[in-house]
Amino acid sequence: MTAFDADDPGTDNAALRYNIVRQSPDKPSPTMFYINPERGDIVTVISHTLLDRE
Prior knowledge:
little secondary structure, two-stranded antiparallel ribbon, 2 strands, calcium, calcium ion binding, Cadherin-like_dom, Cadherin-13
């Protein structure tokens, strides 16, 4: 994920916040992922045994 804001970095308008609006499908868990709201890093937060990597 990449984001760019052309506002002056010293202003509140330049602040970026990340969030997951919706996960679809919501199975095996509606909260399988976490996103760091400041950096945008996305990680899985459920057991690896529940993930189908195919």
